[in-house]
Amino acid sequence: MVPAPHPSPATPDAADSRARLLSAALRLFAENGFAKTSIRQIAEAAGANTALISYYFGDKKGLYNAAYAEPLGGPLQADAGPDGNSLDIFLEQFLTGFMRPLDMGDQVELCMRLHFREMLDPTGLWQQELDSEIKPLHSTLIRLLCQAVGAPAPDDDIHRLALAISALPLQYYAHRDLIQQMAPQLLNDPECLQATTRRLIDFAHHLIAGETRRRQAPAGDAP
């Protein structure tokens, strides 16, 4: 018997097979971790042949990398405009990109679990994300905040301000269960989620304005 050929990557069947493998991998890796999840388990959960994992992802590590990054839409990206000095553009892109995955519904829960598991039982992917994505974004934010508040160089309060801004969207991930009980519309209504993102951008600007006023206060008056 001649085995059926693999579906072409451009066909609907191929897209469905790849999506099912990715979905099964996300769930199993989030539940069991990389080491305790086998290719066979993923293929069985997806109703697919193990050969398709090699076909679409190369190997188990390639599938893990895809399950870690792809459901969230890829790396978080933000720039500072054409001249590289626009804090407004950076904050809008940064906070909008951070909040966007929340419209994925329950799947975002699995993504969070996988990311936390990677931090606790690292395969190297978390460190790679730190080096290639998180640190550069933080460095850009630090530079723009120094310009905004008139700081000649980063100090502890600039880092505190940057971390406070980054924490604004993180609360919607960390407290997702509480939000679903207390104010579910904040996560479940797309228009409400967009409004929340706009408010976070406003809140970030208010934090920056407050730090600017604190630094400009006469000596002895600043808290």
UniProtKB/TrEMBL annotation:
Q: Does the keyword DNA-binding apply?
A: yes
Q: Which residues bind DNA?
A: 38-57
Q: Which domain of life is it from?
A: Bacteria
Keywords per UniProt: DNA-binding, Repressor, Transcription, Transcription regulation
Q: Which SUPFAM superfamilies match?
A: Homeodomain-like, Tetracyclin repressor-like, C-terminal domain
Q: Name one GO molecular function term.
A: transcription cis-regulatory region binding
Q: Which residues form the HTH tetR-type domain?
A: 15-75
The question of whether Cell cycle is a record keyword is answered with no
Family matches, as InterPro entries: DNA-bd_HTH_TetR-type_CS, Homeodomain-like_sf, HTH-type_TetR-like_transc_reg, HTH_TetR, Tet_transcr_reg_TetR-rel_C_sf, Tscrpt_reg_YbiH_C
Task: Tell me which PANTHER family the record gives.
Answer: HTH-TYPE TRANSCRIPTIONAL REGULATOR PKSA, HTH-TYPE TRANSCRIPTIONAL REGULATOR RUTR
Task: State the protein's name.
Answer: HTH tetR-type domain-containing protein
Organism of origin: Acidovorax temperans
